[in-house]
Amino acid sequence: MTAVTVVIPAYNAAHLLPLVIPAAKAALGNGRLLVVDPGSDDSTAEVAEQLGAEVLRLGHRAGPAMARNRGVERVDTEVTLFIDSDCVAHPDVVERVERAFADDPNLVSLTGSYDDTPPEKNFFSQYMNLRHHFVHQGARTEGSSFWAGCGAVRTQAFRAIGGFDAEQFPMPMIEDIELGLRLSPHGNTRLDPKLHVTHLKHWTFWGVVTTDIFSRAIPWGRLILATGKMPNDLNLSWIQRINALAAPLTLLAPIGIPLLYFLERPEFAAPFVAPLAVSGWLNAKLFSFFRSRHGSWFALRATLFHLVHLSYSAATMAYLTLMHGLRPKKAKVAGIQSHPQP
């Protein structure tokens, strides 16, 4: 079996660590657990030490990309497993990681997912966690993107590419997706849909929207435009792209179709009917999944909000594409440059 070190970046996570660290230690057995505190102003470091973790204090405010990089500097095992400070590892997490890397010498990354039992019961927490779980369970398992919430890397390959790009992503964004793009030429990248953690985060409406737009859609869109690479996976699969294009008209259909009939112009209803049918077909499995967890009323609300999510994400990408097309050529070339910070 391949030796694994768990690295947890933890900023102001003192209230979460009593759940996170014991679970990680139980999964590790005698393995090494390193918590990196990037400038917390609560008792994160002290709580982590009391719970038996090794702690690295950075002494200054930094994002998770920098915290993980500094943690890997101290890793002496073949594999590093990143777990976020709001994620509780399932008991078999480390065993699954060890076995995957031992079975495939060419494996450079292994990604897991949230489970389908988030403890926060409010609507947006359930929606966000279940959406993530559903997408990851249906994603391709080979040639997959990387996710640092519960993701393992071969330490040597991680160091060879310079780690996470902490300069481009100083705060939590899509530093793991960008890392995955640079890792993929160095070996196999895989998703294990049974590699699970329980996500403790409490989501609000504004938290969902601002995170989706400013921490994901905008930096992800810029990365796509800069590299010219749009992976056919996860939220960017062909099905999801079509779904995003159909979503705005689907949301307008309940107003647009009756209005056209009221105006006695039903021949113009087709632009609404077709997207409505496409959305119904593409989101049928998602609706069934939501319904299996919390019933039809939750499924209806969650699926409708999912269309809202797709709409503002698509609008963001359209805006970025337009602005990219209007930029001078030299600025576009400069935008491709990346500066990974170990």
Structure in words:
- By secondary structure, the protein is α/β, with parallel strands linked by helices.
- The protein folds into 2 domains: 4-202, Spore Coat Polysaccharide Biosynthesis Protein SpsA, Chain A (Alpha-Beta Complex); 235-335, no CATH class.
- The protein is 53% helix and 14% strand.
- Strands 3-2-1-4-7-6-8-5 form an 8-stranded mixed sheet, sandwiched between helices.
- Helix 1 links the parallel strand 1 (4-9) and strand 2 (32-37).
- Helix 5 packs across helix 11 and helix 9 (238-262) crosses helix 11 (284-326).
- The chain is globular.
Protein traits:
Spore Coat Polysaccharide Biosynthesis Protein SpsA, Chain A; 2 domains; 342 residues; alpha/beta; eight-stranded mixed β-sheet
Summarize, please.
With 342 residues, the chain is α/β, with parallel strands linked by helices. The protein contains twelve helices and eight strands. The protein has two domains: 4-202, Spore Coat Polysaccharide Biosynthesis Protein SpsA, Chain A; 235-335, no CATH class.
Pick out the low-confidence regions: 331-342
Structural class: alpha/beta
Looking at the structure, the CATH topology of the largest domain is Spore Coat Polysaccharide Biosynthesis Protein SpsA, Chain A
CATH top level of the largest domain is Alpha Beta
Major beta sheet, strand line-up: 3-2-1-4-7-6-8-5
Quickly count the domains.
Answer: 2
Strand count, sense and barrel status of the largest sheet are: 8 strands, mixed
